[in-house]
Amino acid sequence: xxxxxxxxxxxxxxxxxxxxxxxxxxxxxxxxxxxxxxxxxxxxxxxxxxxxxxxxxxxxxxxxxxxxxxxxxxxxxxxxxxxxxxxxxxxxxxxxxxxxxxxxxxxxxxxxxxxxxxxxxxxxxxxxxxxxxxxxxxxxxxxxxxxxxxxxxxxxxxxxxxxxxxxxxxxxxxxxxxxxxxxxxxxxxxxxxxxxxxxxxxxxxxxxxxxxxxxxxxxxxxxxxxxxxxxxxxxxxxxxxxxxxxxxxxxxxxxxxxx
Length: 259
Hints:
Low-confidence stretches: 1-8, 241-246
Helix content: 40-55%
Number of strands: 7
CATH architecture: 3-Layer(aba) Sandwich
Shape: globular
Number of domains: 1
Structural class: alpha+beta
Strand content: 15-25%
Distance between the termini: 36 Å
Oligomer: single chain
């Protein structure tokens, strides 16, 4: 299952009971940074299965989906296991003026470069995929996977979480996670479908998400276990203080609405 299929999943019944189900799932979840060649290969195979199934990529003979951004920039290739089975994966790039190499910039440089020049810190989320069978068993899997994004944003003091998604998935990201549409779909050099850019302003929206989905909360120890490593440049956890409250992305949203 790719993010396309995940986007069709929404809480059923009361939101409270949905959150309870995610909390129970969390007791069986293990988040890991994919360091070994074996882990990475399993993720690349999972991507291929998901993307080829929904027509996002063309079939290939080696049954893997990877690109240069799996090695480039300040990248975190993360895996979520349920009962020791690989259930989902997501790729995060921690982006700043000092670390400007990330996937979404390739398509949306005109929108994103001013934010980097202004000193913003961004988490770019890409390659969000899940196992088809386990997604049917665990309907809250996309929410448990999104928790990694919120953890990274908290750990690195990010201003924004980005999501590059197909047009048909915009409603899900807006409804489920409060993302705002920043740019309409554009062609992607590696995908068969155009993608749009959405963003979540972390200082404003993260507290709302914590209240709505308590399972998104995490401890500093948990975040450090996933994200701590030497980094080039000044970006370090806690070094930035509070994120600035100006919201140029929000200005773009307001301009789109007015238009």
